[in-house]
Write a structure and sequence with these properties.
By secondary structure, the chain is mainly alpha-helical. Helix content is 53%, strand content 0%. It contains four helices and no strands. The longest helix has 20 residues. The protein is elongated. The chain starts with a helix and ends with a helix.
Length: 102
């Protein structure tokens, strides 16, 4: 009886599969996999694993022809990496090499 009630709730609370073709639906879901249950950022490895699972589930739906395409492929990736100002010059490189070799 509890299983039937849970399945009814799940049916009412779930979006139709066709809604996954909209970026406005997929983006928040992918953002949510990067959070812990209390809303803090999850570890990078956890986020990467969860995103991979989401991608593969959607790819399986494409394989079963339930979706025409994987909606994650159409999303623009937002990098959380910080850009480093400047770069290596010949002078800074040789200075660093000298420091290490001494």
């Amino acid at each position: 009886m509890e299983v039937a009630a849970a399945l009814r709730w799940l049916g009412k609370a779930s979006l139709p599969l066709s809604a996954l073709t909209e970026a406005a639906v997929v983006r928040p879901a992918l953002d949510a996999v990067g959070l812990t249950m209390d809303g803090r950022p999850a570890a990078a490895s956890t986020t990467r694993r969860r995103r991979s699972v989401c991608y593969n589930v959607l790819q399986y739906a494409v394989e079963l022809e339930l979706l025409d395409f994987n909606p994650v492929d159409k999303l623009r990736v937002r990098s959380s990496r910080q850009k480093v100002a400047g770069g290596w010059t010949a002078e800074s490189w040789s200075t660093s090499v000298r420091r290490v070799s001494c």
